[in-house]
């Protein structure tokens, strides 16, 4: 293979990978200089000129002519007077010899190796460019097409044919994709695996919800409304605390939109995830009350040392505060940064009830804590549930639930 064919084939391959001309020339020169170093030990006294457009390559070896008896005659950048005269008869000592080195002088094997090295360098460059591109897009929404569905992940292709990965753990539980579907997600992170960039997407990250709000709510995109915090149970429920620095703008109303027009687009993208938009405030009691909406809170007691809140509600509000699957109270706790314990306000009839703490000698403290987390703070409140309801709310073992019912039931049987 001559230089022209080698350079032209490389240039064509590089252009197909969108490599710019200066980078192409730099790679060519690096590879040819590596060939020179392998054959001549050094490339310091070599001049390499490349014209990638025309496929031209010129390599000149530059050496100074010294006397045949000179001590410097063995230096790599020196040539004896006798050897120089064989190249050009009228050379004189002290002059420089420019000797053209043809590509064939390096040998067929070296040229083949150079070709493979050039292709590999472009592929490595392509990987670096891909890594850098998506590293800058971390936290941003991208759209890609599903091309393969595997057990633990979905493989997608972006518009340039790059492979993106949406792991099962980063998918909303209700997501159902087919080959050819267009998927929106954020770039979660970019890893390097065996020298190859691995681009991980996410649809469960709170950042994904934040970016969707930016797309649908101009005031959020423009910075007139700030999203203070987002907590999610992907596909089920989310709570978004927002604040406006302009008194003329209602942050909740702006995010929801006329007749819910803005938030509906977000909800659809998140597989009908229930989204509560809350007006942020530094008043803790008011913030907690808003976070536990739609339940109506009667009173709140805070313990700053343990970062726990005791929230008291009327009996008919307890289930609203807890929410389906306990999502409402879990998300409210994460949003305000306190562990929330829900208690029912007792009426006169219920004063005959017995606080669960009275059974601490018979029921382990951690079990009582689990019950209280779901708003069950008295014996009757527990006994009012079926075994299935209590198991679902607390995720306690069946045997444990049976024992709780036995102990509490004995109290009232007596």
UniProtKB/TrEMBL annotation:
<dbReference type="InterPro" id="IPR013735">
    <property type="entry name" value="TF_NusA_N"/>
</dbReference>
<dbReference type="Pfam" id="PF08529">
    <property type="entry name" value="NusA_N"/>
</dbReference>
<protein>
    <recommendedName>
        <fullName>Transcription termination/antitermination protein NusA</fullName>
    </recommendedName>
</protein>
<feature type="domain" description="S1 motif">
    <location>
        <begin position="139"/>
        <end position="204"/>
    </location>
</feature>
<keyword id="KW-0804">Transcription</keyword>
<dbReference type="InterPro" id="IPR003029">
    <property type="entry name" value="S1_domain"/>
</dbReference>
<keyword id="KW-0805">Transcription regulation</keyword>
<dbReference type="Pfam" id="PF26594">
    <property type="entry name" value="KH_NusA_2nd"/>
</dbReference>
<dbReference type="InterPro" id="IPR012340">
    <property type="entry name" value="NA-bd_OB-fold"/>
</dbReference>
<dbReference type="InterPro" id="IPR030842">
    <property type="entry name" value="TF_NusA_bacterial"/>
</dbReference>
<keyword id="KW-0694">RNA-binding</keyword>
<dbReference type="GO" id="GO:0003700">
    <property type="term" value="F:DNA-binding transcription factor activity"/>
</dbReference>
<dbReference type="InterPro" id="IPR025249">
    <property type="entry name" value="TF_NusA_KH_1st"/>
</dbReference>
<comment type="similarity">
    <text>Belongs to the NusA family.</text>
</comment>
<dbReference type="GO" id="GO:0006353">
    <property type="term" value="P:DNA-templated transcription termination"/>
</dbReference>
<dbReference type="InterPro" id="IPR036555">
    <property type="entry name" value="NusA_N_sf"/>
</dbReference>
<keyword id="KW-0806">Transcription termination</keyword>
<dbReference type="GO" id="GO:0005829">
    <property type="term" value="C:cytosol"/>
</dbReference>
<dbReference type="InterPro" id="IPR058582">
    <property type="entry name" value="KH_NusA_2nd"/>
</dbReference>
<dbReference type="Pfam" id="PF13184">
    <property type="entry name" value="KH_NusA_1st"/>
</dbReference>
<comment type="subunit">
    <text>Monomer. Binds directly to the core enzyme of the DNA-dependent RNA polymerase and to nascent RNA.</text>
</comment>
<dbReference type="InterPro" id="IPR010213">
    <property type="entry name" value="TF_NusA"/>
</dbReference>
<dbReference type="GO" id="GO:0003723">
    <property type="term" value="F:RNA binding"/>
</dbReference>
<dbReference type="InterPro" id="IPR009019">
    <property type="entry name" value="KH_sf_prok-type"/>
</dbReference>
<dbReference type="InterPro" id="IPR015946">
    <property type="entry name" value="KH_dom-like_a/b"/>
</dbReference>
<keyword id="KW-0889">Transcription antitermination</keyword>
<comment type="function">
    <text>Participates in both transcription termination and antitermination.</text>
</comment>
<dbReference type="GO" id="GO:0031564">
    <property type="term" value="P:transcription antitermination"/>
</dbReference>
<keyword id="KW-0963">Cytoplasm</keyword>
């Amino acid at each position: 293979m001559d230089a022209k064919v080698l350079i032209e084939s490389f240039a064509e391959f590089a252009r197909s990978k969108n490599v710019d001309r200066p980078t192409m020339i730099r790679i060519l020169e690096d590879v040819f200089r590596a060939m020179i170093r392998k054959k001549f030990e050094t490339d310091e006294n070599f001049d390499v000129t490349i014209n990638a457009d025309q496929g031209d390559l010129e390599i000149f070896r530059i050496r100074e002519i010294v006397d045949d008896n000179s001590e410097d005659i063995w230096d790599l950048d020196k040539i004896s007077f006798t050897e120089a005269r064989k190249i050009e008869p009228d050379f004189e000592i002290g002059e420089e010899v420019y000797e053209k080195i043809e590509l064939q002088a390096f040998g067929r094997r070296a040229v083949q190796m150079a070709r493979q090295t050039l292709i590999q360098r472009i592929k490595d460059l392509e990987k670096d460019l891909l890594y850098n591109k998506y590293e800058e897009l971390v936290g941003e929404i991208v759209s890609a097409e599903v091309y393969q569905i595997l057990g633990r992940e979905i493989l997608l292709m972006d518009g340039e044919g790059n492979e993106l990965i949406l792991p099962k753990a980063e998918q909303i539980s209700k997501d159902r994709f087919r080959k050819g579907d267009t998927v929106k997600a954020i770039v979660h992170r970019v890893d390097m695996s065996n020298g190859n960039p691995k681009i991980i997407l996410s649809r469960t990250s709170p950042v994904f919800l934040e970016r969707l709000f930016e797309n649908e709510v101009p005031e959020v995109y423009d910075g007139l409304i700030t999203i203070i915090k987002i907590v999610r149970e992907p596909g089920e429920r989310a709570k978004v605390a927002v604040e406006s620095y302009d008194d003329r703008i209602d942050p909740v109303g702006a995010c929801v939109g006329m007749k819910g027009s803005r938030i509906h687009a977000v909800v659809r993208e998140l597989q009908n995830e229930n989204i509560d938009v809350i007006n942020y405030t530094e008043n803790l009691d008011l913030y907690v009350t808003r976070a536990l909406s739609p339940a109506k809170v009667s009173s709140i007691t805070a313990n700053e040392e343990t970062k726990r809140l005791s929230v008291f509600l009327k009996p008919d509000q307890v289930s609203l505060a807890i929410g389906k699957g306990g999502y409402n109270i879990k998300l409210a706790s994460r949003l305000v940064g306190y562990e929330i314990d829900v208690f029912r306000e007792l009426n006169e009839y219920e004063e005959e009830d017995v606080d669960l703490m009275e059974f601490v000698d018979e029921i382990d403290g951690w079990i009582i804590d689990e019950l209280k987390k779901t708003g069950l703070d008295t014996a009757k409140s527990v006994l009012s549930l079926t075994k299935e309801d209590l198991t679902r709310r607390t995720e306690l073992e069946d045997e444990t639930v049976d024992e709780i019912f036995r102990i509490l039931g004995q109290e009232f049987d007596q």
